[in-house]
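Quick start: read one record
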Amino acid sequence: MATLILTQSQVRALLPMRACIELVAEALASLARGEGTNPLRRGMRLADGRSLLGTMPGAVGTPPAIGLKVVTVFPGNHGTPWDSHQGVVVLFDADHGVPRAILDASEITSIRTAAASGVATRLLAREDARDLAILGTGVEARTHLEAMLLVRSIERARVFSPDRGRREAFARRAAELHGIPIEAAESARAAVEGADLVCTATSSPIPVLQGAWLAPGAHVNAVGACLKDARELDTEAVVRSRLYVDRRESALAESGDFLIPRSEGAIGDDHIVGEIGEVLIGKCPGRRSPAEITVFDSLGIAVEDLAAARYLDRRAREEGVGTLVELGGRRDGAS
């Protein structure tokens, strides 16, 4: 079978957010049932001390999918034409191990990350959540707004970035696209105070969200920090919340939002209530009252990428989209 190659624009056209939310939900539930494999990612810091080269292998169950994401994270790309996350998702044939698809990772990452937040919000946020705050104006801010609109009836949104021009441009474009009022807030605090839903999607290594700003009953999706020495939430925000993760093992090894408060003695390992997949299969309780604060600390895991890749491979071949090339070693050397 020829190997399929999909570009960023092709991935975007073939992977709608609504479908990806369901794909991610099933992947996380399958992992929680023990039907998948998701080892810790491996990363190598680059010479600038900020950038990272990482590999994320994994496997999901029925139908089977095996593969990995190879990705670079360049925080310095913010404000340039390039996304901060660059790379490819490689999907292998489950019978013979032949490369089946090579897909642009930037778009898969932006869509599936927001989709995971959509799953968490659907499970943990109050049903009447209507007021949204987004910290950040990059790719993830765009996709998170889309995901939040699909899982809750948002009536008002506020966005903040330290760059006035970017936040005003984001608010203007998003309001025109989605048809809801979107305000460019003057500060992170002004964006967050009174919000039912908060999404932090920044490249900041230090807290951008303070727990003192959170209203009772708020739900937070924290997606920007993916290193053990970086965090978007201050200690009070984590202490005040019931904390959920995509993968417990990953959080204990990589999440600065969790590890830094733990190192301060503010919380212990038992502060992690459970994984989103465990909530999906009924193994772990979700929200218990309208007043409690919930946080989904999202690091992003390989089974999410593979679920999206499997869907994209099938749909692209059905619709004749993408480029087919002959890859895969043959014993006779034939091409």
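Residues 208 and 232 are 5 Å apart (CA to CA).
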